[in-house]
Amino acid sequence: MHMADALISPAVGGTMWAVSAAGIAYCSKKVKEELDERKVPLMGVLGAFVFAAQMINFTIPATGSSGHLGGGMLLAILLGPHAAFLVISSVLVVQALFFADGGLLALGCNIFNLGFFPAFIAYPLIYRKIVRGNVSQGRLALGATLAAIVGLQLGAFGVVLETLASGITELPFSTFVAFMQPIHLAIGIVEGIVTTVVVSFVWKANPQMLEGSPVKAPTGGFPVKTVAAGLLIAAVITGGVVSWYASGNPDGLEWSMAKVSGKEELESTYGIHSMLASLQEKLAFLPDYSFKGTAEASEEAEGDQSARLGTSVSGIVGGAMVLILAFVLGLALKRFATDASSRA
Amino acid sequence: MAEIARSFHDLNYIDTLSCMDSPVHRIDPRAKLATFLIFAVCVVSFGKYEVSALLPYFFFPAVIIPLARIPARYFAGKIVFLLPFAVLIGIFNPLYDRETLLSIAGLPVSGGMISFVSILIRFILTILAALMLVAVTGFTGVCMALERFGVPKTFTTQLMMLYRYIFVLTSEGMRMARARDLRSVGRKGSGLKVYGSLIGYLLIRTWNRAQRIHMAMLSRGYRGDFFLRRPLRITSADIAFGLGWSAVFITLRFINLPRIAGQLIMGVLS
User: Fold this and answer.
1) What CA–CA distance (Å, rounded) separates B177 from B189?
2) Residue of B nearest to A175 (CA)
3) In this complex, do B7 and A327 lie within 8 Å of one another by their Cβ atoms?
4) Total domain count for chain A?
5) CATH code of residue A238
6) pLDDT tens sequence across B195-209
């Protein structure tokens, strides 16, 4: 679920950085306004708790595998959405920097996918609506499980949309969605069950932690303004992505048909310019597409084969040279550095 | 379990590296953070079929790692460990994008293969950048730099508190897991029920710990500020580091060095 830098383009990465930065700024302001000083260490330690909880896993019944806590929904339930968003973001920063779990540039995307959806969509719109004041075992279980599943599903869909907008992998939208959503449904169910088990335990052992959580539970439902602002941001982003996608590709069905048939043709025959054209049409609207259109490519392929070979060989020779140079430079610098330190 | 313990060990190790002293460690965290971010942006901004122009970016780690006297072997191991994820991301490209884009000695190479290789190279470069940044700056330094760049103090404080207690709580979590494993010979006890109360207890203990920490902080005069051992001061060397490397990255973004070098060599040979 953590996106790597290779999955996104700088434009998408930058946009999501800006969106997540705005989210962090907004939540920081909110948390500060609440003026509950006790929460400063509590938030930090609960973030560390997420790491600690991941040290312990359990056996999933009937399968051979084991699972552990993800933590997003649990944090939202314990801390409320604003503080939870900050804690999730901080956890993701540490994961990106120390475990290379998600890239630097993709950090904005990851914070949005894994923080925004659980804290500002799934928690207020599902968990709070279901639990709403009168806590009971059943309501807790239903609320936590549903919210965890929906939060993760939205997050997975966010990954698909961001990858699509970046135009990095050639995975067709539908195929990628068909991969991502079911996998994250399974993960979401596990996450929901774990969250339920932990929350019910806490509710039995120390009920104040849930009811009198440091965040004053907003009476009369969740502030509509926050949700509206959040939804607006989501709508603008989704709208932008979808419209961009749609404009380059007016008919999704036609495109997917051409795609499927194109693959079959590719396997059976050679010289299928018409099919390549449909493939190219799809590729051409993606950004950063550095090679020329079909017409030019095929002309080149027929005509100037030798010249193309020439440039590609020189590219490979040059690339190898650069790599060797970098390696040698590194070794030399290392020797230099150790010499300097041993002399000192 | 072994894997998680391993990643915890990694955290510890990078933290140790960041406490070392070298010319690179001494550069202001702000200059380093900005430089590494520009590096990542430049690497990711290339077209999806670009391979050769990405290679000169390896000069950056090749210079920084020895100068900072941090072990290259550690980073290599880390990348090998993480590479399967990158392979997973790009593995479908060769299947979907089969158009021949170039041929080497008569062997056709499809666009999908090229973009797959390109994804792998980017993945390696960006992972290197993130790990190197922490290894030469330290997490507190990164947080301080973030704060000076305008990140809200609430968030940077959160980052530092989180980081401080990761070490305390993960060892607690590991002790609990080990204790349970020793008592649940076979599979009994590793199920959801025991797990729930185990995590629940950990949570309650964490909660109480947070209250004690808060009292301790207050009694030591905490007023919302943390202090750094190395004071932040931008010198001309820091500016030179930041601007110099950024200029290199941006130049390499627009000039394909390997192709030029290769053409030169081929020209001389023929």
Assistant:
1) 11
2) B92
3) no
4) 1
5) 1.10.1760.20
6) 888 888 888 888 888
